[in-house]
Amino acid sequence: MEGGGERDHEAEPEYHCHDFEWEDLRADVEANPSFSHHLSPFPTTAASPSPSSEAWRSFHRRHASGRFFKERRYLLKEFPDLLNNNDVAKMLEVGCGNGSTVVPILRCSRNNIVYACDCSKDTLEKANEIVNNTEGLDGKDRFHPFLLDVSKETFPDWLFCKSCQMSNAKAVDLLLDSSEHNTRKEHPVLLKENQCCVGGIDAVTMIFTLSAIPFNLMSITIQRCVSVLKPGGLVLFRDYGLYDMTMLRFSPSQRVGFREYMRADGTFSYFFTLDTMRELFHAAGLLELELEYCCVRSINRKNGKSMQRVWVHGKFQKPTR
Ligand SMILES: C[S@@+](CC[C@H](N)C(=O)[O-])C[C@H]1O[C@@H](n2cnc3c(N)ncnc32)[C@H](O)[C@@H]1O
What we know:
The chain has one domain: Rossmann fold (3-Layer(aba) Sandwich). Strands 3-2-1-4-5-10-9 form a seven-stranded mixed beta sheet. Strands 6-7-8 form a three-stranded antiparallel beta sheet, with no helix packed on it. The protein has helices spanning 22-31, 36-39, 53-62, 75-78, 102-108, 121-133, 162-166, 181-186, 218-227, 245-248, 274-283, and strands at 89-94, 112-118, 143-147, 201-207, 229-240, 255-257, 260-262, 268-270, 287-299, 306-317. Strand 1, helix 5 and strand 2 form a beta-alpha-beta unit. By secondary structure, the chain is of the alpha/beta class. S-adenosylmethionine binds next to helix 3 and strand 2. S-adenosylmethionine (SAM) binds next to helix 3 and strand 2.
């Protein structure tokens, strides 16, 4: 693992834990002069950073082996809504990478259909390969990856059409329509606007993706995700929290904004407070159902040092009317 903003895909904890109080960590960090460069306001005159999608594309090209795939089994404990056993549920995983979040969602219920976007074609191909080759998953027909830079582009019309958005509760489940079943299942991305569509999404997952998008583009990104949700639909969110160990390792020169950093490879990392989350999601019209810090103490196996990890866990809902 590299220092100063390590890429910690492997360092995920088992699931939701509260090993320490976030307020105690905050007091320690804010009293420690060696962390003062993380706290100072960022000059507003500084040019806002450019989108890091190209950096992510290079990252995935360099790591084509799929080494960053690790099934996030803890997700189902964190978000039991994913364990849906009754009705067909359409999920959208935003910034799916190699499918670490997609696989447990497909695995936990045969009723789950997963649409998944990423800005990198290479990682989508890898995710597809992993889904197709994972034994016992049977996810081939229920996984629909597509290329999209969510910080720049709107979601495609086939995911939701305007008439379905308006009569949302009654949106016809076209993928299950018997006469069209086969063709649509095989070619869901070829659905035509207003002729047929997926009919909206039941739950959007954003798992370590929003932090990868420049802060000035987060609002619009969230609005886009909300636009494809059915009324009553959920956003399930997990990402880096303020004063996570990886933030404190960044050097002053890696700061590109307030609580925002650029790794050596050009990818971004933002660290959220609950208040920032609240503001962003409320502004997009969502209701807060769950929002908290997940604070985990883990021990570095190499040097025996204790590491304080902080993640933000959130669950938000689109109002039903
Ligand atoms: C830290 S990975 C998380 C992957 C996955 N959600 C998971 O649970 O492991 C962040 C992902 O977001 C993708 N990403 C970054 N910026 C994006 C953008 N603007 N549009 C779409 N995907 C983006 C990256 O390519 C990367 O695969």
